[in-house]
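hiii so um. not sure if this is the right channel but i have a protein structure encoded as tokens and i wanna go backwards to a sequence. like what aa goes where. can anyone help
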């Protein structure tokens, strides 16, 4: 079976400590991704809420924090209703570079999707492009 992993690298003109807040603070997450039920923290479960009109505040995606090493690395599981309970994994790596941050996202596990695994991975790939563009705008 083919490993369907999404890998994204973004260069952000802000230090890792600043970028980290946008990955873990519920209010800052809302500026580029989805509002958090609460801050993402070590060993904790997390829930992100939808910002879709008419469904605001409903559970959108959720998971468990596996590794929490501020401001260098965040690893968490990731699922939502369309994944039908299949857990994927997101690994966020932040590397300081000349006052900025090289942010790398590795999102894998889509090969576990029974029907249309490639399409699910492709849809998430496109979604991450859109979200990371917003992240670039709000962190600078």
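sure thing!! here u go:
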């Amino acid at each position: 079976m083919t490993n369907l992993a999404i890998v994204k690298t973004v260069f952000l003109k802000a230090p890792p400590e600043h970028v980290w807040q946008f990955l873990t603070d519920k209010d800052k997450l809302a500026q580029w991704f989805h509002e958090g039920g609460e801050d993402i923290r070590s060993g904790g479960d997390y829930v992100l809420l939808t910002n879709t009109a008419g469904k605001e505040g409903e559970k959108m995606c959720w998971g468990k924090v596996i590794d929490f090493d501020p401001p260098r690395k965040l690893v968490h599981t990731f699922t939502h209703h369309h994944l039908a309970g299949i857990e994927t994994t997101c690994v966020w790596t932040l590397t300081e570079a000349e006052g900025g941050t090289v942010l790398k996202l590795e999102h894998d596990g889509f090969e576990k999707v029974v029907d249309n695994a490639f399409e699910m991975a492709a849809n998430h790939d496109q979604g991450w492009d859109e979200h990371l563009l917003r992240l670039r705008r709000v962190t600078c």
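oh and The domain at 6-139 is CATH 3.30.530.20 (Alpha-D-Glucose-1,6-Bisphosphate; Chain A, domain 4).
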